[in-house]
Amino acid sequence: MEIPDGPESITLEWLTEALRQNGAVTQASILSFQTQPIGADGEGITGQTARLQLTYDFQEPGVPQTLIAKFHSADLQTRTIANSLGMYEREFRFYQYGARQTGLPTPHCYYGDFQASGMTVLLLEDLAPAKSPGSVLTPAQVEMVIQQIARFHAFWWEHPQLADILGPDYPDALQNLLAMLQQAVQEKWELVVRLAGDNLPQPMRAIGQKIVNNWAAIGSRLRLQSPRTLIHGDFGGDNLFFPTLQDGNAFSVIDWQLSSRGRGPHDVGMLVGSLPTEQRQKSEMDLLKMYHQILEENAVRGYSFEQCLDDYRFTMLDSFARLVYVIREPFPGEDLKRFQANDHKLREVELPRRCAAILDLDADTLIMG
């Protein structure tokens, strides 16, 4: 089947056939559907997303009444970059090969397709009325999520089928990419220092320079060195959906475009390091010990708590460099209201929390040279 160029290109015939391929619909046909963009005009950082409200010619039991349609970016340059980084293919392969093999809850995928050109589509379960809590997670929610991701990591720990989801392992190509990313943050560092202002504590000026100068080595530790598992790569509150914001008994993980081979504590550090500083300080060691204990209970051997803690500390350095990479000035003609909301979150919320974690954990002492 040809992949539509976005939500506006979906036809009744295409949608009916797509839902029939994997049995989401068996006899009914779609008479009409309404499209509601998600986000700013449906265009996210790397793609287009919309909610579809479906009407059938008769009510077949169990068919989806709404779903989420996720496509490649409408912007050719953005699509080319995301595709060159393997983001679309990784998410497609995750839903095709990995989503249902373990107990980690993810949206059901009714249909997916990917082409080497970067054209991609996923028709996913609509999780509404579930919502993302952002960085405002209760202690019970954080504990439950860490328990689940620990079991997920243990299942995929050095798993022989990782290539089914992530494709072949190309360490030289990844090392080259890490070097390019390091050069990019080195070139941006002085701009980010100026933009960050008081959100970058004085001790972090020198430490931050040290981090950006060694980001490739930090990334190599977390993504190239064994033992590795399947990591989400952007495991934070924005990608966790709970039935209610207070519910600690269920959740679902979305957005697998940055999934990769890597050290498991990377996901733990991405989540816990994004929490309010006092909440992180109070709970992080207990959470990390619980995570490591669950790995051992699920047959992970030869990975000490000391290694786990160091990988967690390395993640704080990595997440800081990632912030340097994305903090920026607005583009000409950009929607300033949308930019300012995201900029506030990055500079005034996440950056101070990541800096505090690095200082609390003496994480910079891990950097050699």
Question: What is the topological layout?
Answer:
Layout: H1 12-21, E1 30-37, E2 47-56, E3 66-72, H2 76-84, H3 87-98, E4 109-114, E5 120-125, H4 139-156, H5 162-166, H6 171-196, H7 203-213, H8 215-223, E6 229-231, E7 240-241, E8 252-253, E9 260-262, H9 265-272, H10 277-297, H11 305-326, H12 336-361
Antiparallel strand pairs: 1-2, 2-3, 3-5, 4-5, 6-9, 7-8
Helix pairs in contact: 4-10, 6-7, 6-8, 6-11, 8-11, 9-11, 11-12
Written description of the protein model:
The protein is α+β, with helices and mostly antiparallel strands. It has two domains: 7-125, Phosphorylase Kinase, domain 1 (2-Layer Sandwich); 139-366, Alpha-Beta Complex (Aminoglycoside 3'-phosphotransferase, Chain: A, domain 2), CATH 3.90.1200. 48% of the residues lie in helices and 13% in strands. The chain is built from twelve helices and nine strands. The chain has helices at residues 12-21, 76-84, 87-98, 139-156, 162-166, 171-196, 203-213, 215-223, 265-272, 277-297, 305-326, 336-361, and strands at residues 30-37, 47-56, 66-72, 109-114, 120-125, 229-231, 240-241, 252-253, 260-262. The strands form three sheets. It has a five-stranded antiparallel sheet with strand order 1-2-3-5-4. A two-stranded antiparallel sheet has the order 6-9. Strand 4 (109-114) and strand 5 form a beta hairpin. Helix 6 (171-196) runs antiparallel to helix 7 (203-213). The chain is globular and about 65 Å long. It starts with 11 loop residues before the first helix and ends in an 8-residue tail after the last helix. The relative contact order is 0.11. The model has no long low-confidence stretch (mean pLDDT 93).
